Amino acid sequence: MLTCEKKQVNVMSLIVAIFLLLGVVGMSSKASAAPTSNVGIVDFQFLMSQQPDMAIAQQTIKTQAEQAQKDFNEKTAAMTNDQDKQVYFNQLQQQLDEKRQALLTTIQDKVIAVIKTVADAKGLAIVLDKSDIIYGGRDITVEVGRKISGK
Asked: Which of 120, 122, 119, 125 is CA-nearest to residue 44?
């Protein structure tokens, strides 16, 4: 009976050793394979600044801010109540913010469309902003920038 138990222990030890060996071989073959990533990264702020419409949007925002300042100065010159001046200032500021947001959203949508085109061509499932990445990913900023600028 002791011999039978010894054979079972030897067989079990052999089975465990085989599984361990297969596991190590499997892990080493995966480790030696070239790492692939389906995550892209871009410098979104840089790409926004490179979008041709951005310069026009910035000039438009500047012009609108100057006009708002002029309107404020003209309208509040006769106002004596500081609270009325503040209310008018807040209205002008809100209008400027809405116009600015509308202009920037249009540009942002254009940049995102180009990012999506490049990402799809490269087989990337996800694209994140560079500022959110510590390690890894494929940087496609240059390629997206070329498409945005038409080069």
From this structure: 119
Q: Which residue has the tokens 């012009």?
A: 63
Taking the C-alpha atoms of residue 56 and residue 62, their distance in angstroms, rounded to an integer, is 10
Per DSSP bridges, beta strands 138-139 and 39-42 are parallel
Spans of all domains in the chain? 1-33, 35-149
The residue type of 87 is: V
Class of domain 35-149: alpha beta
pTM: 0.66
Mean pLDDT of 50-78: 91
Edge to edge, the sheet with strand 126-129 lists: 126-129, 39-42, 138-139
Structure tokens at 54: 């951005």
Q: What is the pLDDT of residues 9-54, one digit of tens each?
A: 565 565 655 655 555 445 444 443 344 578 999 999 999 999 999 9
Give the CA radius of gyration of the chain.
31
Considering only the C-alpha atoms of the chain, give the largest distance between any 2 of them, rounded to a whole number of Å.
Answer: 111
